[in-house]
Amino acid sequence: MTRNTLTLALATTALVAAGAQAQDATLTIESWRNDDLKLWQDQIIPAFEAEHPGIKVKFTPSAPAEYNAVLNSKLDAGSAGDLITCRPFDASLALYDAGHLTDLSDLDAMSNFSDVAKSAWQTDDGSATFCVPMASVIHGFIYNKEAFEELGLDVPETEDEFFAVLDAIKEDGTYIPMAMGTNDQWEAATMGYNNIGPNYWKGEEGRRALIAGDQKLTDPQWVAPYATLARWGEYLGDGYEAQTYPDSQNIFTLGRAAIYPAGSWEISGFNTQADFEMGAFKPPVQNAGDTCYISDHTDIGIGMNAATDNPEAARTFLAWVASPEFAGIFGNALPGFFPLSNAPVEMSDPLAKEFVGWRDECESTIRSTYQILSRGTPNLENDTWGASVAAIKGASTPEELGQQLQDGLASWYEPQQ
Amino acid sequence: MNLARIRWHIVVFLAPAVIVYSAVMIFPLFNTLRLALYTRIDQERVFVGLDNFRTLFFDPIWAEQFWNALGNNFWFFVIHMLVQNPIGVALAALLSHPRLRFAALYRSAIFIPTILSFVIVGFAWKLILSPIWGIAPGMLDWIGLKSLYAPWLGKEEYALTTLALVSVWQFVGIPMMLIYAALLTIPEEILEAGEVDGVTGWAAFWKIKLPLILPSIGIISILTFVGNFNAFDLIYAAQGALAGPDFSTDILGTFMYRTFFGFQLQLGDPHMGSAIAGAMFAIILIGVCIYLFGIQTRMRRYQL
């Protein structure tokens, strides 16, 4: 009797083990988007798992500022997840060169993306694509519609109108004109310099000329945005020097500030936090009628860990990410992250619609410092953070900042020497 | 014959500690120093000798960051020596006063911050000092000193000193406890003998107690030195890896972290990072040696 039970138990265990081996593959996704944990768990992953029984997906994000460091150590230690959310450009290119990411050029679904969309995750010669483009973010300004109505203000189109609006809000005194701090530094560069800048350096034209070495950071079109940023200082709230990024988000969503220099990724968070109506306007141009340029930055891709135990399952997931179906779910689950897929996606969120609508009116570009120019030391992107903060605080003149950045870039980047 | 016999029990008893310590301390330390002698060129690790150190000390871009971090680190240390340790000694002197009531309560209350995590301390003080939600502006307002308020953590000229003082607040309990223990070991008879000779009150502190606790103060100074030059957590928790504003709170620890692991678009460079870690090690080693050979051997000790 005892022996029979034992045999039965052993047989059952063996069966279960065999069954498990035949199907269940668990894929772990590394990401820095800890804000999106709920959306992945409630919408994206169930949609995928319903179609692909047998593949389980786990989304395991870490904090944005630590992501690169954490991911690199995990990859070196061999403990990283199967799927890797890719930062654009060099951070991911380095992972590919080090053999941590797989070449995905042969993935059929790659044809769903334009070359511009793929450029952020390609080798310099374009021969290998190693991440599936997921989404881009667009820069602009989000404003409190109720505050604007209360003060009888119109949405500014030109820079003069923009500062006139800020003056009017400041004069009234009910609202802080603009919610942004310089404590965490990156907002000043990302939501300041690279938000308003493309209108000065004419988007892609200036960005490519800078990479080619035809323009310099000391040229007027690259220095002028700092002069404009210098005027921002007086409209930011008291003690903005120690105001952090979450502080700024809270000040705006609590209705204490009228304008928020934004990236479209804020939309879903703001929708849940703010109980007033919000609108968005694009970076103001110098003169009415000028061509407008927006930063439509390729921000997220997803690739496959070369050391994964489940390459087939991972490819299945990536092919699904590249499909129009995913684009539809993702674009609407995460308003503000705009799918890069060629298939048109209908947005339901009004604020997201406003942002994405600018793609039709304006020329798109990406952040000036991201491609190639932040490859060396000193790092141009990190230097731009410091320079933008210094401009807002008035610690240095725009010309000094331009010279300083140019010297740093020229010290290692040949086309600028 | 007997001399040659190996006493195996000594080896056996030492082995666990030696093996564990070597694996988790000695090996990583030397491996880090070794790593500093290499660099990566096209995915290949290449031996470059002391090139990384030359870059660190003489390349204008690296050297500026290094000296800035080192200077900030010294200022961080100076604040601790000038504020934390004198206050620690003073508190210990007060606590050891025989007629002080609730001494145990004060002792615990002052010591509690020491056991808090850096992350909690950094975050709590960031909130306290915040111009938007903080209680610091409000409290200054009550006593009519609102004009003295500034967003300290966001100003280049104040941020480092503010963080050093936060760190002092957190760690003042350690010198206090050590000095307090040293004060308790001073026998009553000596103080009574002093009293008979007319040495009381302040004079008793300066002439009898202070010379007797001087060795403890020496130990505290060296602990502060080592702790400060290895500091990282508080700055990272409060200001992030870029140690803003404009690198004004950048110390060697944050500089090393940023270089070693990379930050935002900047990729990590383990070799330069190791070079900085090596420089930190050398600085601390030199400091400790100066203390051990230059100060401690000359310090007068009294037999109690």
Molecular structure report:
The complex is a heterodimer of chains A (417) and B (304). By secondary structure, chain A is an alpha/beta fold. Chain A folds into 2 domains: 2-136 and 298-349, 3-Layer(aba) Sandwich (D-Maltodextrin-Binding Protein, domain 2), CATH 3.40.190; 137-296 and 364-416, D-Maltodextrin-Binding Protein, domain 2 (3-Layer(aba) Sandwich). In chain A, 46% of the residues lie in helices and 15% in strands. In chain A, strands 1, 2, 3, 4, 5, 6, 7, 8, 9 and 10 form a 10-stranded mixed sheet that branches. In chain A, helix 8 packs across helix 17. Chain A is globular, with a radius of gyration of 24 Å. Chain A starts with a helix and ends in a 7-residue tail after the last helix. In chain B, strand 1 and strand 2 (44-47) form a beta hairpin. Chain B folds into 2 domains: 2-35, no CATH class; 52-298, MetI-like (MetI-like fold, Orthogonal Bundle). Chain B has helices spanning 8-35, 51-58, 60-95, 103-115, 118-129, 136-142, 156-171, 173-184, 188-196, 201-229, 233-239, 252-261, 270-295; strands at residues 38-41, 44-47, 262-263, 266-267. The longest helix of chain B has 36 residues, at 60-95. By secondary structure, chain B is mostly helical. The mean pLDDT of chain B is 90. Chain B is built from 13 helices and 4 strands. In chain B, strands 1-2 form a two-stranded antiparallel ribbon. In chain B, strands 3-4 form a two-stranded antiparallel ribbon. Chain A binds chain B through residues 65, 68-69, 72-73, 87, 89-91, 94, 97-98, 181-186, 237-244, 247, 250-251, 369-370, 374, 377-379, 381-382, 385-386, 389-390, 393, 395, 408, 411, and chain B through 43, 61-62, 126, 129-133, 137, 150-156, 239-242, 244-247, 261-269.
